[in-house]
RNA sequence: GUGGCUGUAGCUCAGUUGGUUAGAGCAUCGGCUUGUGGUGCCGAGGGUCGUGGGUUCAAAUCCCAUCAGCCACCCCA
């Protein structure tokens, strides 16, 4: 039984399902390219510290969701990437690309997280990803958000997606606020949920994510981060918001939006939909000005996002069938060899050709129909003798003859 | 890790208060049509009823356990 069962949380992307998947990726890549993002491909696994140092020692991803193992040397600790950002930043620093900024890249591929599967969540899943490294100012934030919005529009899902945005401020603002927040929360002591009490000291901002009713009550009156941003942080956030408005990108400021990963600063955002059940975040990201330094590189600002390909693919629905082939239908043994030669010629001339390995005429026509062929090219003894083929229109069944010689030219309209 | 729901043919599902040989649609294959598909008609193959135990004269049906899938919590794309 288990011999044929795929690993929990993995899925076979069969041709039919892969079509949507590919459509999402191709569309995203093409739009990103228009904004000057070049595609790159970081490794699927990295040394564990690349992720553990950057994402936060206490984050759920690092503490319980990573696929980590020693490699065959028995010494190095390897982790299958749970996200793109850290790996891309590592690649940036490893290759000393500091003089290549702004470094604008697009990436896509599989990610791995050990979680209980549910709708829109798998253990192997796929993301599209866009990053701008090396730009300190809010223009990068605005551009990164613009590409995201543009991709959603191009995929025709933008109308059911809303952009929520917040500022986490710079390090100074965050530290100042953190003290205020802890001071506010501490008196509640046992009233807080167990999770929240744990978070109180290592990551109090995350208490805003709590679903516990009592926590929500308590947090309602808590001091807000936005009221504690220093001038620079306020100005920065204001500039981002103005830039979005100026480009006609709708957004909602969500003071409770706190991303789960430690490396975020300033801008944090999520494109969210109601149409996918509980896992509605379709693209999310933010600014990570300290990340590259944390990795051991030179201080370099960055901002980017990742989008869930499976989630987006569910939203785009069934679309576009592949182009229609012409089908070759040999009748009788002699015609088979001839059909293969014709097929080869047509394929070299750019045609998509369907040619079965076996079966009589009836069977082959049925398969041609199933393959959604535009025409069937019938080749029997009669045709061979006369040096022609019979073209059957698969829509209306009408038939006419064409010379075998120079067939590709006669069929140009079906290419 | 926790909770809820669901496991019957390749797929989607019926299956009555436990009762003979477990059914249908779709899909597949064959025939009506030995040179003509997509619509029609006829037929065929295909099932350890998730798995293991228990109750009973008798279990797809009731009980227990277990596995898997889905959905949700947590968290995230």
Layout of helices and strands, plus pairs?
Elements: H1 15-34, E1 38-39, E2 45-47, H2 48-55, H3 60-65, E3 67-70, E4 77-80, H4 85-94, E5 103-112, E6 124-133, H5 138-154, E7 161-167, H6 171-185, H7 194-202, H8 213-220, H9 231-246, E8 252-253, E9 265-273, E10 281-287, H10 291-294, E11 302-308, H11 309-316, E12 326-330, H12 333-348, E13 353-355, H13 361-370, E14 375-379, H14 381-386, E15 388-393, E16 399-403, H15 407-410
Parallel strand pairs: 1-5, 7-8, 12-13, 12-14
Antiparallel strand pairs: 2-4, 3-4, 5-6, 6-11, 7-9, 9-10, 10-11, 14-15, 15-16
Helix pairs in contact: 1-5, 1-11, 5-9
This protein binds one RNA strand of 77 nucleotides through helix 3, strand 6, strand 10, strand 11 and helix 11.
How many structural domains?
2
Strand order of the biggest β-sheet: 1-5-6-11-10-9-7-8
Q: Which blocks of ≥5 consecutive residues have pLDDT under 50?
A: none
The number of helical elements comes to 15
CATH homolog superfamily of the largest domain = Bira Bifunctional Protein, Domain 2
What is the CATH top level name of the largest domain? Alpha Beta
Shape by Cα distribution: elongated
Structural class: alpha+beta
Question: What's the overall average pLDDT, rounded?
Answer: 90
The radius of gyration over CA amounts to 28 Å
What is the CATH topology descriptor of the largest domain?
BirA Bifunctional Protein, domain 2
**Percent range of helical residues:** 25-40%
